[in-house]
Design brief:
seven-stranded mixed beta sheet; 37 strands
Length: about 725
Amino acid sequence: MTNPLITDTTSFAETMHRFAADDKDGAEILTSPAGKTIARQFTFNRAAVVSATVYSIADRHRIMSELRLGLTGFYVHLERKKAIYGFDPVRALDLLEPSVNELTDSEFHQSIVDLIARTRDRHLMFFGRAPIGLSAVLPFSVEQCWQGQDVKYAVTKIAAGFVPKQLRAGALVTHWNGIPIQRFLALNANVFDGGNEAAALARSIAFLTNRPLNEFAAPLEEWVDLRFTLAGTVYEERFTWKGFDASQTPITPSVGRNRTGFGGDLQLMYLQHSRRVQFVPQSFDPSSAAALAPAGNGVPAIIGSDPGGNFEYGTVTTDYGTFGYVRLWQYSADTADDIANSFIRILPQLPKKGLIIDLRGNHGGYIAAGERVLQLFTPRQITPSRFQFRVTPATRSMVGEWDDFKIWLPSVDEATATGEPYSQGYSIEGSDADANQLGQHYFGPVLLIGDALAFSTADIFTAGFIDHEIGKVICTDENMAAAGGNNWQWDIVRLYNPDFHLDPALKPALDAGRLSPEVRDAFNRGGASLSTNAVVSGGQPQYDGVRWTITDGALTHVVRGLPQMGKVLYVYLAKGRFGLADLPGRIIVSLTMRRCVRVEKNEGRLLEDLGIRPDIVYHMTLRDVMEKNQDLNIRASLELSRMPAYDLDVAVVPKGSAYTLVCRTLQLTSVEAFAGEKVLAAAPATDGKPVELSLTSPPGSIEVRGLNANTVAARRFVTLPAPAA
């Protein structure tokens, strides 16, 4: 399937031809220990990058026009952001318009980047004309930690193969080009679009030594003078920016066939991939898995990973016991239940005493797939977060077009009539029942660890975890990213806003490359006449369907057959209704289309800008950032040891036309079996002693509840098999 979240298809070879210096200037291929080519590094040529970043006058006006349409017609947070931050991006575009022809290419690029950043919404993105994967990098990484009450900035990694003069991992950075490092990071945070101060500072640190060029301009400084202390001695060392391209090992986020269900940060995803290539090249070799599974007090012992690349899992042992551990990196899936089912497969391998889910730096992904995981850890019924559209003529037209959004249509119509700015909120995919159909699968206490980089779907997941009172949350910053929305790239906005339909009976003519009289008549009825010179190209696969391109002079129209979305053929004019058009090549714009509203104990509260309130704000220690989060995991295991651990294991034993349920429990006082709300059987429970429930019931799914006193503390779905023939 063509992934709609990636629109830049520039090849590795083309990238390097345009941007890399010649081999005589120091270009080199980077490989993993096993010899796999993973990237190329080269002398950074600022002039070459600037000259290659070209925006024609026509491209500039189209970018601004479509961005203005997106903001005014679809962007759900427009009025909220204006009210909070006192900045109007639409007005800023209007003010930029008269001078746009006179700007240099780099000035235009930076003007759009700054405009987007000032809106303070990480979902609102502009990626300009630099290929995905190309960055300016320094050969080390820096992380924040604390020594007592003092914040420090430690060098935590040195790039593979790079040998500095004095710098070593563990050095504490004090100055960046003569500026105290804490002051520099605070100033640098102003250029980032975090939804709160913690998120902006976290991004300032994360991108300190890796500057993706499709969003940021080339670094102003050609080198960096770093002052640092090591073993009590002060050193200074100069480092030169290098060009770095990780597109040899491409990555693509996936939201399956629900293209509108994404909530994530593409730039953070690319950054993490680039840093993996730069600092952990051995991770690209399959044989390296065992080497990546250390053990020790508070150090995770990794025993496996999700085939989809979403998480690693294992155990953590401390003085407080041995607990399960999951490092949840992202939410990438083909269907909404994929990640939950992956969890179900690995949870029996983990200790029952408690579970740490560490989602620091999680860049988000498929929203529904993230929320479906929540049911696995609680006996409570999950209410998925609610999502609202901003009500405009453009959103009304789109919502009325597609079955995917039909649940929102009555409230959009009502809001249009009454002047309400937003629709009612509904689950982003499926029903509330869909969010609970797998049931609880882990009965011990669960603790989440987050940070200010954990974004979007990770924010939504954590909010749901808090709202349903599943467990405790530790945050290594004052807040998480506070990104509460569903973002679409511009090509998806355009996909869901066709201009008119064609009868599917016209498909054979398009397949044959003919603009038949019937096709021309259909275009005339749609308000777009085709000249006698118009030609149609043969169908090409796209979005699980077929695309035909009609070229008519300077105009290019597109016809799509999209079986997953409807039986008719959809027409997209070169300039469609509301003025919608495709963006120029190799430009990516992303918008927040729906906002997230919290549920249960925080019902009605918005997630955007506000974020979450963790139970514990934890300051990372030097040992944490240098030695695999040992102190953090010790603190997490301490908290888990103080939380009650339950267990409910149920075995079904058929006995003719009846069944016996053999239940083994922990810290439960009684067990009950239900069909719907009808009690089938009940009995008291005692730790270490099996409880047997006898029942006669038709085959199928039933629910077993474990109670502690009068509170449901565990819940499990079991299937009663049909009698043997």
